[in-house]
Design a protein that fits this description.
Elements lengths: L1 E6 L5 E5 L4 H10 L6 E5 L5 H12 L3 E6 L2 E5 L10 H4 L7 H10 L1 E5 L12 H9 L3 E5 L2 E5 L7 E3 L5 H11 L5 E5 L5 H12 L3 E3 L5 E5 L9 E3 L4 H13 L3 E5 L7 H9 L3 E4 L5 E4 L8 E3 L11 H9 L4 E5 L8 H8 L3 E5 L2 E5 L8 E3 L3 H13 L3 E5 L1 H5 L5 H7 L3 E6 L1
Parallel strand pairs: 2-14, 3-13, 9-10, 17-18, 21-22
Antiparallel strand pairs: 1-22, 1-23, 3-5, 4-5, 6-8, 7-8, 10-12, 11-12, 14-16, 15-16, 18-20, 19-20
Helix pairs in contact: 1-2, 1-4, 1-7, 4-6, 5-6, 8-10, 10-12, 11-12
Uridine-diphosphate-N-acetylglucosamine binds next to helix 1, helix 5 and helix 6.
């Protein structure tokens, strides 16, 4: 078993370069299945979710070539199966994008019930509603989802709630459908725009991504023959911004899109820390005094992202005064608060609300990551804490952060990966 051993009380200082967005990569990789050709994708994050996705695409008959650490060429001309390997697809959540892609290209898809982070109930009824509106038959039984369609015909789909996954999945299924599809009440996260830009680069006709309504004019074929660079990871950038504040450090975050970070910048300023948006692609965050209490409510973009809630929770556990976080997306996202309490925090979480009575400082302890972002939060807590922290369950963290301990080490953290 691997663990991270962190000796804390080190303010983070220096520069960190952000990788390509995990949540864009895990949608763009399956989106290549819609192309009858070859495409190249750059700025691919080197994380385990991407590696699993590449494996799955190869199992389906795609040829994948890593040109360098962050660039891959995908040849999807010889896909010979629509049944994705159940044991691999059930390992992570974003495998559901295989349904939209395979259904869109071949009219047939089979995928294991998606797994992934344990954040509470994660229904996919809105994805299914969209596929059915386009004319597909969907069966969910025996731990797998099967979707079939003679023809997919463009239509109007209204999503009952703002869902990142449903927005992208219905968009994938509609790209090669006959006629026009309009998806209403869609999510607006940066990676949704990125997936639409990728598909348009390959020959799709998608308009409105980034607004509440997406219009897709179906095309006969996606041509490939293009290179696309994945957008920088908004959540990784936010993680390092919040780590700079939590450790009372001074960090410049490079290769990010600061426009995507506005809700995080606003909250950092409200806490009394400092931000300098250098040029739209690089941002400096520093903190010289104890952060003030603030309240947070997680919301779909451009609200405060749920995927940065645990990292923010670390700061609030040590802020001056009592802060409240209201989690409106995932019901089980407060599991990390139990671990912070082992480190001396005073947090009481009930349902969707957690109350943080700020303490002066945290003390090192063995802690367990319950999910990806909880894992990032515990690393930050360990870097802040007095003494030694051991973080376990690293497979969650490796799913979505590239070289996380190396990046923190370069900023001055005393952190080592140890095999027990
Ligand atoms: C994506 C992100 C995840 C992030 C989340 C919210 C990926 C791979 N993962 O997850 O990191 O935390 O967005 O920003 O991009 N819902 C339904 N029915 C559905 C779909 C969703 O009820 O068919 C509900 C969910 O239970 C949740 C809310 O809608 O309460 C938002 O979920 P959604 O945006 O779909 O999250 P994911 O796409 O799974």
């Amino acid at each position: 078993m691997e663990k991270l051993v962190i000796n804390g009380k080190t303010p983070l200082k220096g520069d960190v370069t952000i990788s390509g967005a995990k949540n864009a990569a895990v949608a763009i990789l399956p989106a290549t299945l819609l192309i009858d050709g070859i495409c190249t994708i750059d700025n691919v994050p080197n994380i385990s979710d991407v590696k699993i996705y590449c494996d799955i695409l190869q199992d389906l008959g795609a040829k994948i070539t890593w040109n360098n650490e962050h660039e891959i060429t995908v040849d999807t001309r010889n896909i010979n199966s629509y049944n994705s390997p159940l044991e691999k697809t059930s390992k992570f959540r974003a495998s559901y994008y295989l349904i939209g892609s395979l259904l869109g290209r071949f009219g047939h898809a089979q995928v294991g019930m998606p797994g992934g982070c344990n954040l509470g109930a994660r229904p996919i009824d809105q994805h299914i509603k969209g596929f059915e509106a386009l004319g597909a038959k969907v069966d969910v039984s025996q731990g797998k989802i099967t979707a079939t369609a003679e023809d997919l015909i463009g239509t109007s789909v209204y999503l009952d709630m703002v869902s990142v996954g449903a927005t992208i999945n219905v968009m994938l299924a509609a790209v090669l459908a006959e006629g026009t599809t309009i998806i209403d009440n869609v999510a607006k996260e940066p990676h949704i725009v990125d997936v639409a830009n990728f598909l348009n680069t390959m020959g799709a006709d998608i308009r409105g991504a980034g607004t509440d309504v997406i219009k897709i004019n179906g095309v006969k074929k996606l041509h490939g023959n293009a290179t696309y660079s994945i957008v920088p990871d908004q959540i990784e950038a936010g993680t390092f911004m919040l780590a700079a504040v939590a450790t009372k450090g001074d960090v410049t975050i490079r290769n990010c899109i600061t426009k995507h970070l506005e809700p995080i910048i606003a909250k950092i300023i409200e806490m009394g820390a400092e931000v300098d948006d250098i040029d739209g692609d690089n941002i400096r965050v520093w903190c010289t005094k104890r952060p003030k209490k603030i309240n947070i409510k997680t919301l779909p973009y451009p609200g405060f992202p749920t995927d940065l809630q645990p990292q923010m929770g670390v700061i609030l556990s040590m802020a001056d005064g009592t802060s409240i976080i209201n989690e409106s997306i995932w019901e089980s996202r407060f599991q990390y608060t139990e671990e912070l309490n082992k480190m001396g925090a005073k947090i009481s979480a009930h349902g969707k609300t957690a109350v943080f009575d700020g303490v002066e400082g945290l003390v090192g302890a063995p802690v367990y990551a319950s999910d990806l972002r909880a894992g990032a939060a515990l690393i930050i807590a360990g870097i802040c804490a007095e003494g030694t922290t051991e973080v376990y369950n690293l497979s969650h963290i490796d799913r979505g952060y590239e070289n996380i301990e190396e990046k923190f080490k370069k900023l001055g953290a005393n952190i080592e990966r140890v095999v027990e």
